[in-house]
Amino acid sequence: MKNKEIVLKAMNELFHEKDITAIERYWHESYQQHNPSMTSGHEGLRNLLPFLDSNFKWKPGIIVEEKDIVITHSLVHGWGPVPVIVVDIFRLEDGKIAEHWDVVQEETPASKSANGNAMTSFL
């Protein structure tokens, strides 16, 4: 399985299917989290799930894979009160997600942007 396929399966199983056993399958045991509001390790992921909105939805658009790095550009509902655009950067090691960074910003509809363009690549 390619690294981007691992990331897609991991994110779907944990965040959409709410399968907590996905953590052991897809996240490295020494997983490092670089989002300052989240903790590292499997326990950090387990602790995150109860705080997510029940309608949480991660919809990736652009996905780039380069060696052990996967970058996704996504629309996320349920991370907070409004939809957000997220760029996630994953580093994989031994077929599992070993590190994660992200950049998050509130979605601005094309009708309200200065350029009239959507913030996503798939709407």
From TrEMBL:
It comes from the Bacteria. This is SnoaL-like domain-containing protein. Residues 9-100 form the SnoaL-like domain. Pfam families: SnoaL_2. SUPFAM superfamilies: NTF2-like. The lineage of its organism: Bacteria, Pseudomonadati, Bacteroidota, Sphingobacteriia, Sphingobacteriales.
